[in-house]
Design goal:
With 142 residues, the protein is α+β, with helices and mostly antiparallel strands. It has one domain. The protein is 25% helix and 6% strand. Strands 1-2 form a two-stranded antiparallel ribbon.
């Protein structure tokens, strides 16, 4: 949760982003993994370093929640390549349409407000689909 606060995210917002990502890493489709100071498998918050170059962010430039390997080795390496070498469609699609910036990643359901879905996929598959309130024109149906 400490990492989320550095990026201006609440637990509800982290859960909503994970829900929009199907509780998997959007790059490798795996569950978050790897030891950290806060315990096993905390997700790594990916943000656009062009907006906020440090270890924290304004919250508006958060792109998604990645597993440790995809965040520290995969995406960091890929973004340092020259544009002519950035030819991986899957990563380019993630960067062009990050899950955290999609409408479905908003805090919409009661299930977003509770539980700690962010550890090791422990809550993967669990969620309340009861909407917090009706949102006219929202892509998710009540």
């Amino acid at each position: 949760m400490r990492q989320a606060r550095r990026h201006g995210l609440t637990l509800a917002r982290v859960n909503a982003i994970l829900r929009a990502q199907d509780d998997t890493c959007p790059l490798c489709q795996g569950l978050g993994g790897g030891p950290s100071m806060e315990g096993l498998s905390w997700w790594h918050i990916d943000h656009d370093h062009a907006c906020c170059p440090g270890q924290s962010s304004c919250g508006q430039c958060v792109r998604g929640l990645l597993c440790r390997n995809c965040n520290s080795r995969g995406l960091a390496w890929y973004e340092n390549l020259t544009a002519d070498l950035q030819t991986w469609d899957h990563i380019n699609a993630y960067l062009a349409d990050p899950p955290a910036r999609r409408p479905e990643a908003a805090v919409l359901f009661h299930g977003d407000l509770q539980g700690v879905r962010s550890r090791d996929g422990a809550f993967a598959g669990w969620r309340s689909d009861r909407l917090l309130h009706r949102t006219p024109g929202h892509p998710l149906k009540p």
